[in-house]
Structures are given as C-alpha cells and as structure tokens.
Amino acid sequence: MIGGTRETTTGVIRLRAMAKDGTLNIPSSRNDAGDKHFFDNRYGTGRSTIDGIIPRDKPADSPACEVVVAGYGWCGKRVDAAKGLGADVIVTEINAVRGIEASWMVSA
C-alpha cells in the first residue's frame, strides 16, 4: 500500500491515534477541516437523515408524520427541513442553550 486517506471524524481520530502510537506505517492524509465538519454534518448527514425518515409515498403533513430529534447538534439542526415539509417535530436536548434554540426553531 502506497498511502491512504480518511474523511470521517471517527477515521480522523483513529489516524491521529495511530500516528501518535507509531503504528501508522503509510503516509495518510485526512480532511478534518472545520468547514468540512460543518458542511458535511449540517447539510449532508442532517439532510439525508430527514430524507430517510420521511416516507416518499406519504405527505409529510399527514397526521402520522412525527419526527423526534434526540439532540440538537449539527445533524439535529436539520429539523427545519422536517418542519418545512409539514411534519410535527419534537426535540429532546439536555443542553439548556441548545434546548432553547431548538424550541425556538420548532415553534417558528
């Protein structure tokens, strides 16, 4: 093997640990830039999660479409997409500041 690369947060953490321990025997690059984390989680993972849980064959504003978000982190902040599609949204969050932000977003 000539080299490697890793894109996920978990992979980057593992590469750093291996480099520190001296067990990383090949040159490796990692994309752990702050903007990548921001955009991937907020606009990638968060949006694809909403796309995955709202059925394509049923309108989001039907009475049976409720979305519960456990944690209002980068991915959870995509509740605006579910809300915009007409789903009833409930957010659970243990951090008080994020909880306030979530309650404002869900009620808007």
Describe the secondary structure blueprint for this structure:
Layout: E1 4-6, H1 9-21, E2 28-30, H2 34-53, E3 66-70, H3 79-84, E4 88-92, H4 96-107
Parallel strand pairs: 1-2, 3-4
SSE arrangement, N to C: EHEHEHEH
| Beta-strand content | 5-15%
Instruction: Assign a percent range to the helix content.
Output: 40-55%
Average pLDDT metric = 75
Q: Give the overall shape.
A: elongated
Which oligomeric form is depicted?
single chain
- The residue ranges in which pLDDT falls below 50 over 5 or more consecutive positions are none
State the strand order across the main sheet.
1-2
Main β-sheet: number of strands, strand sense, barrel status?
A: 2 strands, parallel
Radius of gyration: 18 Å
End-to-end Cα distance: 52 Å
Sheet/helix structural class: alpha/beta
Per DSSP E runs of 2 or more residues, the count of β-strands stands at 4
* Total helical segments: 4
What does the model show?
With 108 residues, the chain is of the alpha/beta class. It has a domain at 55-107. The protein has four helices and four strands; from the N terminus they run βαβαβαβα. The protein has helices at 9-21, 34-53, 79-84, 96-107; strands spanning 4-6, 28-30, 66-70, 88-92. The strands form two sheets. A two-stranded parallel sheet has the order 1-2. A two-stranded parallel sheet has the order 3-4. β3 (66-70), α3 (79-84) and β4 form a beta-alpha-beta unit. It is elongated, with a radius of gyration of 18 Å. The N and C termini lie far apart (52 Å). The mean pLDDT is 75.
